Amino acid sequence: MKRLLVLGAGTAGTMAVNKLRPLLPGDEWQITVVDSKPEHHYQPGYLFIPFGTYQPAEVVKPSAPLLTDGVELLIGDVDVVEAADSLVRLTDGTELPYDQLIIATGTHPRRDQTEGLDSDEYGRTIHDFYTLEGATALAGVLADWPGGRLVMNIAEMPIKCPVAPLEFMFLADSFFTDRGMRDKVELVYVTPLDGAFTKPVAAKHLGTMLATRDIALETDFMVMEVDGDARKIVSYDEREVPYDLLVTVPVNMGADFVERSGLGDELNHVEVDKFTFLSDDHDNIFALGDAANLPTSKAGSVAHFAVDVFIDNFMQHIAGRPMTHRFDGHANCFIESGAGKGLLIDFNYDVEPLPGKYPLPGIGPFSLLKETEANHWGKLMFKWTYWNMLLPGRDLPLPADMTMAGKIREEVPA
Amino acid sequence: MSTTTIANREVHVNDEGFMTEYDEWSEELAPHLAAAIGIAELTDDHWKAIRFLREDFVDQQETATLRRVTKVGGIPTKQLFTLFPKKPAKKMAYVAGLPKPRGCV
Fold first, then answer.
1. Do B67 and A157 touch (CB under 8 A)?
2. Which of A51, A277, A350, A390 has minimal Cβ neighbours within 10 Å of its Cβ?
3. Distance between CA atoms of A268 and A260, rounded to whole angstroms?
4. In whole angstroms, what is the distance from residue A335 CA to residue A338 CA?
5. What's the domain range around B83?
6. pLDDT tens per residue across span A17-58
7. Are B65 and A266 an interchain contact pair (Cβ–Cβ within 8 Å)?
């Protein structure tokens, strides 16, 4: 009996095993998934918790029922991957030999990477919304916050769901407006990037959206330390931004065992081929989803399109044939813009987000890089789609490869 | 893609002025590139960063991020901001004749 071992029962790991189980004969392949916790979180839902739109319980389900029959789930922490021996060791001493290994342990916010972030003020004047605990604590604070200066700071790129901090600001503007206290709140967006977003056309559109909402933008800000007592963040080039309430997106890093196993880059993201996700150094190790060091957004949509491409490649690979499918870096993200509207962006390794219609050229129903109500409903509907279509591995009527059909080229003056 | 002349040498650059051909760069060009972005003198510390970037690129086929220069190259981030003010990642790559680091996706 051969074993496919999957580390991580998140979006990528769950989708992969649910799609592979029917393809791998039960009398030939055992599939084992290891995760550190028995629950699966709908991470896109974290964004809505601080504003009371979602309750914490809505974004959590037990992992086991999400895995198809014939997949074994082990709860435990990975100590190390001993790639030379095709063996994974858990911290409790369990040894798991494998024939093929998929690392899908994601990327996670690390407050310990920024001086002063892991302080007593965390949960009081310093918050994050990339964890369920952080988002829940922030909801408690925002519910009766009297107003003041709210600063969003992104510590370092890449982060998962790179549009989420912008969405947070748009939703905050809407939230405080609805409560009749927008005039008591100053909103400041502080980023290490040189604009509101990573790619020029989207950065221009999103930058304009910040400006029209009176959200200040501080760019090229690499945070060196958070001074929780003086309530300010300080950059390496000695700029200071004061706050009353800091919402931070800490440095995102892959799992520590990736570093211990010698498989990662300087952020513990697994070094893999960006077209096939096969490890650079080991012929039976793949990394899927946020855990991989792909030069595209870290997002569930990327994991979804990537898994579609991966499945066919994996079947070829274990049959000893060359992998013929190449992932194009396709990402597709809804962006909440507040007041019941949203945007959608669609891009890949080579093509930046452009305006247009999606998925049907000229028809939509979704509009790219444009605020519409349909996009907002698309985002809210996605929670259902995630649990009921995506994770079980059902096919969505969306091609894995990005298409230029429906997109409009746009020039941004340099 | 176009060409420009730096120190009497014709080199290929992109629309932001970053050199695009690894082998067209040599150490004589670095002071001229540095001067173009307001760095008057390249000290030993500058060179340590530049040489790390050049060597790392051969290995990785992409420009090191700030974190990589700090973690793998052993140069503290704070010092990089002093050596290449405001935008060290971009400025180092520019002087070393390498593409702008990605990291922004």
1. no
2. A350
3. 9
4. 9
5. 27-95
6. 999 999 999 999 999 999 999 999 999 999 999 999 999 999
7. yes
Closest-CA distance of chain B to residue A158, Å: 6
Domain annotation covers residue B18: no
pLDDT at A100 over 50: yes
Structure tokens at A189: 């967006």
> What is the CB neighbour count within 10 angstroms for residue A26?
12
pLDDT at A11 > cutoff 50: yes
Q: Give the whole-number percent of chain A exceeding pLDDT 70.
A: 99
**Cβ-Cβ contacts under 8 Å, B68 against chain A:** 265-266
**pLDDT band at residue A126, thresholds of 50, 70 and 90?**
very high
Q: State whether residue A315 sits within 8 Å of chain B by CB.
A: no
- Looking at residue A411, its pLDDT comes to 65
B14/chain A closest Cα distance in angstroms:
12
Q: Interface of chain B against chain A, CB under 8 Å?
A: 15-16, 65-68, 71-72, 77-78, 80-81, 85-87, 102-105
pLDDT of residue B105: 44
The label of the residue with tokens 């040489």 reads B51
Of A274, A385, A277, which Cα lies nearest the Cα of A16?
Answer: A277
Instruction: Please name the residue of chain A whose CA is at the shortest distance from the CA of residue B68.
Output: A266
The DSSP line for B69-92 is HHHTT---HHHHHHHS-S-HHHHH
Question: Looking at beta carbons, which residues of chain A come within 8 Å of B105?
Answer: 157-158, 162, 198, 295-297
Say if the Cβ atoms of A220 and B86 lie within 8 Å. Answer: yes
Which of A110, A266, A271 to mutate against chain B (most B CBs within 10 Å)? A266
B104 part of the active site? yes
Q: In total, how many domains does chain B have?
A: 1
pLDDT confidence of residue A364: 86
Q: What is the pLDDT of residue B1?
A: 67
**CA A232, CA A230: separation in Å to the nearest integer?**
6
Residues in chain B with pLDDT values less than 50: 105
All structural domains of chain A, each given as residue ranges with its CATH number in brackets, are: 2-106+255-318 (3.50.50.60), 110-251 (3.50.50.60), 328-414 (no CATH)
ipTM of the complex: 0.81
State residue A413's pLDDT score.
56
In a domain? residue B79: yes
Location of structure tokens 């190259």: B73
Question: Using CA atoms, how far apart are residues A404 and A370, in angstroms rounded to an integer?
Answer: 17
Assigned domain for B103 exists? no
